[in-house]
Write a structure and sequence with these properties.
With 420 residues, the chain is α+β, with helices and mostly antiparallel strands. It has a domain of 134 residues: P-loop containing nucleotide triphosphate hydrolases (Rossmann fold). Helices cover 68% and strands 9% of the residues. It has a six-stranded antiparallel beta sheet. The longest helix is centred in the C-terminal third of the chain and has 249 residues. The protein is flat, with a radius of gyration of 77 Å. The protein binds adenosine-5'-triphosphate.
């Protein structure tokens, strides 16, 4: 038998699930201080049923659960499984591989599994007993424990040797048998006490028994009497029932006739009801029609009244129209007269206009002639204007000449005066 595999999840420094495989022979785990080597042996010790937290370097149950780190949150559960190779059948089980699992939650709840099947811690302990790999076995020797074995107390050494020799199991069984024997002795003492107690109660119980037997006899008699009374009552009831049956049979014919009569009456009643329903329907129809006629009559009366009013209104309107027509005819004849007068006047005016137009045409002709004359005059004036301008230019030229001659004369006079 050898340890094949250890699986850890949430146990101490191992937050994530890891699997460590071992082979037959010597295997070693190396790593820097504080990397978790001892945590692996603690895990193995723990899964094998270690109850003392001190042995696995903790103080309370929760200490085995990953407490969190700067990068990871604390976990709520720790789980450890170890798989042992059992091909040599050292463990008293028929499996060639045995897997022990232990799980603990922060709530304190603990679970054990044997090959994934829930089991008790006791089952695991019994299987491991005398194999040397129990929690107290010599197979797990922690740091400084070798010294302890050598220098330890003889009793501790003896426990290790006994485990090695395979007599631990028998010792445990002996302890259990002694415990059971002690329990049996105390049970026997208790039974003796109860016996003495019962013997004291024997005499009163005898009296009670006689009373009970007497009561039983009386009760039987009472029961018999009750049965007799019941039987006589049943007979009376049967007699009454027989009489009632005869009366019932007598009444049966009568009842049949009544039923037939009732049936015929019912049929008639049904017929009457149908007739009544038909009458009612017809009556309702007639009534509906009458209502229709009355409402139509009312409507027609209303219409008639309205028509009469309308007639009156139209008559008044007619009269008005007639008077308006007469007025209009009068106005038309007046207008016609006015129109004739105006037409005559207009004709006269037209004539006047024609003569005026003729006059205007003549005047226009005259005007054109005068225009032509004016144009000629204007041309003449224009010619005269340019003549005037020429003359003015000539005059100014002459004047300038005269001014220059005068100034010449003055200068000549000034020139010759001192000589004189
Ligand atoms: P050494 O070689 O010094 O004996 P080691 O490799 O055996 O060291 P362990 O003692 O197994 O190391 O591991 C100790 C580490 O485990 C410590 O860093 C400690 O903080 C960590 N540890 C212990 N319990 C928990 C826990 N519940 N949650 C998180 N980390 C834990």
């Amino acid at each position: 038998m050898y340890l094949k595999k250890v699986e850890l999840q949430g146990f101490k420094s191992f937050a994530d699930r890891i699997e460590i495989e071992f082979g037959p022979g010597i295997n070693a785990i190396v790593g820097p201080n504080g990397s978790g080597k001892s945590n692996i042996t603690d895990a193995i010790r723990w899964v094998l049923g270690e109850q003392s937290m001190k042995s696995i370097r903790g103080s309370k149950l929760e200490d085995v659960i990953f407490a969190g780190s700067s990068k990871k949150k604390p976990m709520g559960m720790a789980e450890v499984s170890i798989t042992l190779d059992n091909t040599d059948k050292l463990l008293p089980l028929e499996y060639s591989e045995v897997c022990f699992t232990r799980r603990v939650f922060r709530s304190g709840e603990s679970e054990f599994y044997l090959n994934k099947t829930p089991c008790r811690l006791k089952d695991i302990q019994e299987i491991l007993m005398d194999t040397g790999i129990g929690k107290d076995g010599y197979s797990i020797i922690g740091q400084g424990q070798v010294d302890l074995i050598i220098t330890g107390h003889p009793d501790d050494k003896r426990a290790i040797f006994e485990e090695t020799a395979g007599i631990m199991k028998h010792k445990a069984r002996k302890k259990e048998a002694e415990k059971r024997l002690e329990e049996t002795v105390s049970n026997m003492a208790r039974i003796d006490d109860i016996l003495a107690e019962i013997q004291n109660q024997l005499e009163p119980l005898k009296i009670q028994k006689e009373k009970a037997l007497n009561y039983k006899k009386l009760y039987e008699r009472l029961k018999q009497l009750d049965i007799n009374i019941l039987l006589s009552e049943i007979m009376m009831i049967e007699k009454k029932l027989f009489n009632l049956k005869r009366v019932f049979e007598d009444n049966q014919d009568c009842l049949q006739k009544i039923i037939e009569k009732r049936k015929a009456m019912k049929q008639k009643m049904e017929q009457d009801e149908t007739n009544l329903e038909n009458y009612e329907r017809e009556y309702n129809e007639v009534q509906d029609r009458a209502y229709d006629v009355v409402s139509k009559k009312k409507n027609m009366e209303k219409d008639l009244h309205w028509l009469k009013q309308e007639e009156k209104r139209l008559q008044v309107q007619h009269q008005e129209l007639n008077s308006r027509k007469e007025n209009l005819q009068q106005k038309i004849s007046e207008s016609k007269n006015t129109l004739a007068q105006k037409t005559r006047l207009l004709e006269q005016k037209f004539k006047e206009i024609n003569s005026l137009e003729l006059k205007i045409a003549e005047e226009e002709k005259e005007l054109a002639k005068k225009d032509e004359l004016i144009k000629q005059k204007e041309q003449l004036i224009e010619n005269l204007k340019s003549d005037v301008i020429d003359l003015l230019n000539y005059a100014s030229e002459k004047r300038n000449k005269m001014t220059s001659l005068l100034s010449l004369k003055t200068s000549l006079a000034n020139l010759y005066s001192p000589l004189t």
